[in-house]
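User: Please go through the entry that follows and flag anything odd:
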Amino acid sequence: MPIYGKTSVGSEAPLVKVSLDDGQPKNVSLDLPVRFTPTFVLLKDRKEIGRITGYMNDATFWGILDKMLAEHKDTRP
């Protein structure tokens, strides 16, 4: 998602690609294991505060992401 890093959200909540070839990430606390790709997990202090599983289209992704960030505006990454 090349545009993501160029947005204000992208600089505030950077996108980090993680390979699941070696299992679930050990350095973060997830509510549930990641089972599908793509999965976007919003973290605060290495703890999950939101998740988007799958990717329908740009409007849906940005709408859900905006809603998640608004819900956690006091705990934004």
In short: The chain has a mean pLDDT of 87. Helices lie at 8-12, 58-71.
